[in-house]
Design a protein that fits this description.
CATH class of the largest domain in chain A: Alpha Beta
Distance between the termini of chain B: 47 Å
CATH superfamily of the largest domain in chain B: Thiamin diphosphate (ThDP)-binding fold, Pyr/PP domains
Largest sheet of chain B: 7 strands, mixed
CATH superfamily of the largest domain in chain A: Thiamin diphosphate (ThDP)-binding fold, Pyr/PP domains
CATH class of the largest domain in chain B: Alpha Beta
Strand content of chain B: 15-25%
Structural class of chain B: alpha/beta
Shape of chain A: globular
Helix content of chain A: 40-55%
Number of helices of chain B: 12
Oligomer: heterodimer
Largest sheet of chain A: 6 strands, parallel
CATH topology of the largest domain in chain B: Rossmann fold
């Protein structure tokens, strides 16, 4: 160790600690300063974290630039019709509209919490529209856009956040699993489901019958092959379950797409806290391909996810996708991003908005006239109105709900507790509790 | 009658084989369960006979085993996952508590979770750390799980088949130091459970193992042979012990225990798990609530200490044995 300076070396004193650009901001310092960019200058470490979040590297798949210019990608071809673009535009506008309404409903006390997806509309709608009906999706808890694409009515999402249920849709029938709140758990569940698809022999049939190119209108071309897609965030990549999911998927050649929405922030922690390497590169360590796609480019997300799902259906899974995007709003309505990131960073990402670039392309190429945009805007307001009306009228669940479906088979102990609770309630003068309502 | 004498491990193997023959959706998964047949040979020969798509040698990751079993259950399979040793279940605890137990409730029955998680449990085999624990109480505290423990070959066979046929997740504890003890097994004694059959099956209730009149002694799993030895010794002294094997730990089936206590007025509860916040605690509390006026003495517990499981050279002092059980019997009778 001779020659190395120790932390107590007097020669260090020539450089004041505060001037070290790589010294992280302590929680105390951050709290004392308050909102970054408003009441004080960001620290150098915050600037570096923000710059990293705006740098996507050289391997990004993008076909629709932020200015709305389309450049085909040879590996991920897409038939860019006006109908496709208008459909994706409508999806994203409607999803953003009810997402904003969800935020407002929380602020007005109608929801306990809302988990905003603002900024991630393209990453979710692109992936959601790449799926076929027979494919299975495992969301985390921010995937309102994927839910929309799976045909789940936005009002079905409300119960979780209002506290009236824990999953307002049938995950088996919609082929969109319940939201999973423990970070990364769903990656293993999805991997197991995909293992089941493989054991069931519902992959690789196209390879056996290459002449089969029937089109039955659902994009399946007559194939009964299936795949699974699992959604998780940049923070989740640090979880053991995500690692184990990738290990198991590789070991069993499971037909699963690991779809990581890298929105740059895990509550207050930047991606640099999770990984030294770009997240998509992790796939190579497990022995399957990974692609980084512009998560704000709905066409690129659609094309790359279509490719990835087809790889899985063909028996070439798993595949990892990193959708490089940005969480424009808070982690949840309980969060305050101004404590940990700079407003300038959000301003930068506003220029990369996923919806505006599609609108620009539609307008410039003459694929939609002004009335189309007006109609979508009107439809969005109507959806928000229906969303709000439904929310405020949602009743408190009955007491029996608490005891329902804990088990599939009878359970004597629980039945006794339910009986005792009913007897306890019956002891009140007003058992139904209707007084004072 | 096709009664044979066999070991508990082989009875479990026969139970797995029977379930796999009955239902092609039953799959076995875990570390070393395939080619090796499991470190205790409970899955011996199954991969050879049923193939490697039904007996999966998994990567070495317990959360992965249980987490993927969840997805397989959603896909229509009935996974039987093996956790190699009791102390290795904790990496899977998150999946068991957060997903396995809650998915049916979260989705209000849209998904059921027909899954068995087999765990060899308990000490007494001279093992190193993490190979001799009794973690059953952790699981009993989680709504949505069922927890059972077998103690002899006949139960091992019947209970494993019933657990696999159950539409709920079952944590299935196997008394590892009794794996090689022999007993009678009649594979035709009880028919395999079919969909729609009443629940619970007889093997998922408490069983009176020996009738007696002076003191009720209750336990489960590895300690049951200890109770029988204690009852023999007590009988030589003119004391009659009634022995009850709980078998189902969650939900507890206390009907036979209450009936017995109303007769004897005295209760000793035995388990090698740490004593506080345990199965023994719950039995004592419930009996006090429901049979208070029948009790002639406080309910006593004979259990492990609230230490980590000790080095094996002193585990004999840690585990409930004949003397500890009889000491407790003496104390309740002295009241």
């Amino acid at each position: 160790m001779a020659g190395q300076r120790s932390p107590s070396d007097p020669s260090d004193r020539s450089v004041p600690r505060a001037a070290d650009p790589y010294t992280p901001t302590s929680v105390v310092q951050a709290a004392a300063r308050g909102a970054a960019g408003l009441r004080g200058a960001p620290t150098p470490s915050e600037v570096i974290a923000g710059l990293r979040a705006t740098s996507h590297g050289e391997d990004l798949v993008q076909v629709l630039s932020p200015e709305g210019v389309f450049t085909p990608h040879e590996d991920f071809p897409v038939d860019l019709t006006g109908e496709l673009l208008r459909g994706l535009y409508r999806d994203m506008v409607l999803v953003r509209r009810f997402d904003r309404e969800g935020n407002a409903l929380q602020r007005q006390g109608q929801l306990n919490i809302w988990v905003p997806l603002l900024g991630q509309e393209a990453a979710q709608v692109g992936a959601g529209r790449a799926m076929r009906p027979a494919d299975m999706a495992f969301p985390s808890y921010r995937e309102h856009g994927v839910a929309w694409c799976r045909g789940i009515d936005p009002t079905d999402l409300l119960g979780i956040f209002r506290g009236t249920d824990q999953c307002g849709w049938n995950p088996r029938e919609t082929r969109f699993n319940s939201y999973t709140i423990v970070i990364g758990n769903q990656v293993l569940n999805a991997t197991g489901y995909a293992m089941g698809q493989k054991f069931d022999g519902v992959i690789g049939s196209r390879a056996q019958d290459a002449t089969d190119d029937r089109d039955v209108g659902d994009g399946s071309n007559g194939s009964t092959d299936e795949a699974t897609i699992v959604f998780f965030g940049d923070g989740a990549t640090s979880q053991g379950d995500v690692h184990e999911g990738m290990v198991f998927a590789a070991a069993f050649d499971a037909p699963i797409v690991f779809y990581c929405q890298n929105n740059q922030w895990a509550i207050s922690e930047p991606v640099s806290k999770q990984s030294r390497v770009p997240l998509w590169e992790r796939s190579t360590g497990y022995g399957f391909p990974g692609v980084r796609v512009d998560g704000n480019d709905v066409i690129a997300c659609l094309a790359v996810t279509r490719w990835a799902l087809e790889e899985c259906r063909s028996g070439n899974g798993p595949v990892m996708i990193e959708a490089f995007t940005y969480r424009m709003d808070a982690h949840t309505t309980s969060d305050d991003p101004s404590r940990y990131r700079m407003a300038a960073e959000e301003e930068h990402w506003k220029l990369l908005d996923p919806i505006q670039r599609v609108r620009a392309h539609l307008a410039r190429e003459g694929l939609a006239d002004p009335s189309f945009f007006d109609e979508v805007a009107t439809e969005a307001d109507e959806l928000a109105d229906r969303f709000r009306t439904f929310c405020v009228q949602m009743p408190k669940p009955a007491t029996d709900r608490m005891f329902a479906h804990v088990y599939s088979e009878p359970h004597a102990g629980l039945e006794q507790q339910q009986r005792e609770h009913a007897e306890y309630l019956a002891g009140f003068a007003d058992p139904a509790g209707t007084e004072g309502r | 009658m096709t009664t044979t004498t066999t070991t508990l491990a082989k009875a479990l193997n026969a139970g797995l084989r029977s379930a796999m023959e009955d239902d092609p959706k039953v799959i076995v998964m875990g570390e070393d369960v395939g080619r090796l047949g499991g470190v205790f040979r409970v899955t011996d020969g199954l991969q050879k006979d049923f193939g490697d798509h039904r007996v999966l040698d998994t990567p070495l990751a317990e959360s992965g085993i249980v987490g993927t079993a969840v997805g397989l259950a959603m896909r229509g399979y009935r996974p039987v996952a093996e956790i190699q040793f009791d102390g290795f279940v904790f990496p899977a605890f998150d999946q068991i508590s957060s997903q396995v137990a809650k998915i049916t409730y979260r989705t209000q029955g849209a998904w059921s979770m027909p899954m068995v998680i087999r765990i060899p449990f308990g000490g007494g085999i001279g093992a190193v750390e993490h190979h001799a624990e009794s973690p059953e109480s952790f699981f009993c505290h989680i709504g949505g799980l069922r927890v059972v423990a077998c103690s002899n070959p006949q139960d091992a066979y019947d209970m494993l088949r019933a657990a696999i046929a159950c539409d709920d997740p079952v944590i299935f504890f196997e008394p590892k130091r009794r794996y090689w003890e022999k007993g009678d097994l009649d594979i035709d004694l009880h028919p395999a459970r079919r969909a729609g059959d009443a629940w619970p099956p007889a093997c998922f209730t408490s069983a009176v193992r020996r009738a007696g009149s002076d003191v009720t002694v209750v336990s489960y799993g590895s300690s049951m042979p200890v109770l029988h030895a204690a009852a023999d010794a007590a009988q030589a002294e003119g004391r009659s012990l009634e022995l009850i094997d709980l078998r189902t730990l969650s939900p507890l089936d206390l009907g036979p225990v209450l009936e017995s206590v109303r007769k004897t007025g005295r209760l000793v509860v035995v388990s090698e798990a740490p004593r506080e916040s345990s199965i023994t605690s719950d039995v004592a509390a419930r009996v006090t609530e429901e049979a208070f006026y029948s009790l002639a003495a406080p309910v006593l517990r004979v259990a492990g200490f609230d230490t980590p499981y000790p080095p094996s050279r002193v585990e004999d002092e840690y585990l409930p044995d004949l003397d500890k059980v009889l000491h407790a019997v003496d104390r309740v009778l002295a009241y």
